[in-house]
Amino acid sequence: MKFKMTIMAAAIAFSGTALANQNESYIDQEGINNNTSVTQLTQGAGNNVSDVTQTGAYNDATVLQQGWQGYNESAIDQEGVGNHANALQHGTKNSASLAQSGAYNSSESQQYGSRNALQVDQEGVKNNATSYQNGWRNFAEVNQSGSFNDSDVVQWEDKNFAMVNQEGTKLSSDITQSGDYNYADVDQSGSFNDSSIDQDGTLNKAMVRQSGLKNDSDIEQNGKYNTATVEQSSFNNDAVITQNGRYNTSDVMQSGFNDVAYSSQTGLGHDSSISQSALPGFFGGLASLASNSATHVQMGVNNSAVTTQVGGGNTAYVHQN
């Protein structure tokens, strides 16, 4: 999900009743053709603080802070060439820290509500981080190093937590959380790995660990107290976990080649575990290039399924109701 409302459009929409009260702006630029725009609009307490530091050439930073209570804090630090950062804060006591070094990195952040916190750290070339927080006490941290990596974090409502670490090339992470106390943690290395997490409810937890090349993970959770974990390494593995209900647990571990795992849970208290790996040695690896496939479908209450596949060309299907 992408939010395309511009900083300037929001400022124009809000400017009709704006009063400036004890806001602070600090700008430090060194280099050539760096650009910074800071707009601070308040109806009440004010006391917004913006700090922008730019070193290098053709870096661009835009800050908009607004709201009745104020006390928002924004810090942007850019070093290099052609980096771009936008920070929008509408509410009270939100904090955003955006740090970029390298070339042509981009960070777009929007915070609505109260006491939301965001930290973005990018190092490399053409990394992109987009974040949207709307609610109370949501937290997001994004760390990117390498090139052409992409992270998108969207959090609605209260006290959700999102953590993204990317180190490599062409890595992609998409996290969407709606509800309260949801937790998402993504750690990616290698190249062309893709992770998607969508959580709606309360106290759901999703963790993804990816290394290697062209692995794909897709987690969707609806309900309460669901837990999903995906660990992928090696090459071209695909994992899908879908959970609807409460207290469901699903784990997928893939370390082979071209393997496919699908886990679907509907109901209460299910436990699913799928493990897929290659045979050892050179010839074992060649024999394991054929895809393993494992499917678990669980409905009802308190079902448990465990599937372990080693090698290639194996197929498993489990249906429990």
TrEMBL record:
Bias kind Polar residues: ranges: 89-114
The protein's name in its UniProt record: Curlin associated repeat-containing protein
Similarity-based family: Belongs to the CsgA/CsgB family.
Species the sequence originates in: Billgrantia bachuensis
Region (Disordered): 86-114
Domain of life the protein comes from: Bacteria
UniProt KW Protease keyword: no
Record keyword Hydrolase present: no
Signal peptide: 1-20
Keyword terms: Signal
Pfam families: Curlin_rpt (PF07012)
